[in-house]
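Dear colleague,

Thank you for sharing your sequence with our group. We've completed the structure prediction you requested, and as agreed, I am returning the results in plain text so they can be pasted directly into your records. Please verify that the sequence below matches your submission; if there's any discrepancy, let me know and we will rerun it promptly.
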Amino acid sequence: MKKSLYISITCLILFILLSIGIKTNLFLSLDSSIASYLFNPQGLILNLSQAIAIIFDALSVIIISFLISFILWFYRKKKQDLFFILASLTGAAALYILKNMIQRTRPENLIETGFSFPSGHATIAVLFIGTLIYLFSNHIKNKNTRIFFISILCLLILLVGFTRIYLHVHWFTDVLGGYLLGLFILFFYIYLDKRML
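Please find the predicted structure tokens below.
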């Protein structure tokens, strides 16, 4: 139980340190180097990146979240439903507040506007997929199948982050910040959930 709390606190501390570094332009050279190395969107990778961007867009995730929430409620899984809703709402509120507080400019692109840090897609991916892993992976009885299920979903989280940099709509540290924020919220709610068991 305490392990979840320690992970949550560690992610929060790292997120705060990263935010300070961003406000002081500490990572500007790193971000620029990674962006220039990766930015060459074309072909299949471009199409895949755009598809993932649509799937993990806020509106798409809200619709999917409502469907999952309804299914959990329908099957009387009230505790899991509450976990899912609270984690999603906390993530949305944190993103809105932090983006407007830090006000980091995005890389120049023709796709998205608004502030850049932290990456909303990265945060949502960690929260949404992480919640699914936490709530449902234990229901898979076969160990190898469970490991495969978790590995594929974790790979998808990393893929979401990669596509945000590849499409030149976020800096590398925006994505890293999104991951840290998502993990902080996710493990905080896991800690609270385990305390109520």
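Summary note from our side: The mean pLDDT is 83.

Kind regards,
the structure core
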